[in-house]
Write a structure and sequence with these properties.
The chain is built from eight helices and nine strands. By secondary structure, it is an alpha/beta fold. It has helices at residues 6-14, 35-40, 96-113, 131-141, 144-147, 170-175, 215-228, 247-262; strands at residues 2-4, 22-29, 42-48, 54-60, 82-86, 119-129, 158-162, 201-206, 234-239. Helix 7 links the parallel strand 8 and strand 9 (234-239). Helix 1 (6-14) crosses helix 8 (247-262) and helix 3 (96-113) crosses helix 4. The radius of gyration is 17 Å and the shape is globular. Residues 6-19 have low confidence and may be disordered. It has one domain (2-13, 29-262): Alpha/Beta hydrolase fold, catalytic domain (Rossmann fold, 3-Layer(aba) Sandwich). Strands 1-9-8-7-6-4-5-3-2 form a nine-stranded mixed beta sheet, with helices on both faces.
């Protein structure tokens, strides 16, 4: 577990390398079960001229599983990486489990289609902020989610949640009539699905004193439990001085993680 101090993380976050010109293809459908899924279940793909066999970052937005919108952070559209921004359905229109299923369906769609956009199905990294971090953690760890779509979760090259919820998501607890301050770990918690053979994991959070509802401690527990079950490639960073909105210093760590693992 490592603590990154404010000045260092600020300098890292403000350094952006000049990369290839990106173009974005928008609103590609990955699920069309009904009118609501047709509206919400779409992806944007940012790629660049000449892209071939490139690493891929699949990005899930935050918003508490009740709001927000798909986007691709411009900080990750660089260094020869193809990027995918995912939209998904929201509670209370669908259950939290159905939202996790949207995430799995979208990731499976990326595995099946990303080569058309210059990405490699063997170099897919899952990332997202807050609710997005929860979704990628659930799909990356609970293998049955991707198994449903014919994808082995161990094909994922890395899982990088930004301030992701590791216990049962507070929207799921709200639906059950529970307080957001009453913790729960059950099948709807990434922590429930820890396994030593999962993809490499980078856990990123804000300062433990400024984060939302003990989010740092959830991630610290996830780190410890992964280590205890034999996971060999998990790291936790805490960004000193940042709260839940800690994406700015997180983006350079995400890009470094991708490039380091591409060298292996």
């Amino acid at each position: 577990m490592k603590r990154v101090y404010l000045l260092l993380s600020f300098l890292m976050a403000t350094f952006v390398a000049v990369g290839a010109e990106y173009k974005i293809e928008r609103d590609l459908q990955y699920r069309s079960d009904d009118d609501y899924s047709k509206k919400m279940c779409r992806v944007d793909i940012a790629t660049f001229e000449g892209a071939k066999d490139a690493p891929v970052i699949v990005w899930f937005h935050g918003g508490g599983l009740t709001g927000g919108g798909k986007h691709i952070p411009h900080e990750i559209m660089r260094d020869g990486v193809v990027c995918v921004g995912v939209g998904y359905r929201f509670s209370p229109h669908v259950s939290v489990s159905q939202i996790v299923d949207d995430a799995a369906c979208a990731i499976a769609w990326v595995f099946d289609n990303i080569e058309k956009f210059g990405g490699s199905a063997d170099k897919i990294y899952l990332s997202g902020h807050s609710a997005g971090g929860y979704l990628v953690s659930m799909v990356g760890l609970e293998k049955c989610r991707l198994d449903k779509y014919g994808i082995d979760a161990n094909r994922v090259k890395g899982i990088i949640p930004f301030s992701g919820q590791m216990i049962t998501h507070f929207e799921e607890r709200r639906v059950r009539g529970m307080s957001d301050k009453l913790p729960l770990i059950d099948t709807m918690a990434p922590l429930y699905h820890v396994r030593g053979d999962a993809a490499p994991i980078l856990l990123l959070t804000g300062d433990r004193e400024n984060e939302m509802l003990g989010r740092y401690e959830e991630n610290a527990y996830m780190y410890r439990m992964l280590r205890l079950v034999g996971h060999k490639d998990v790291t936790l960073y805490e960004f000193d001085g940042y709260g839940h909105d800690m994406c700015l210093p997180g983006y350079p760590m995400l890009m470094r993680f991708v490039h380091e693992h591409e060298k292996r």
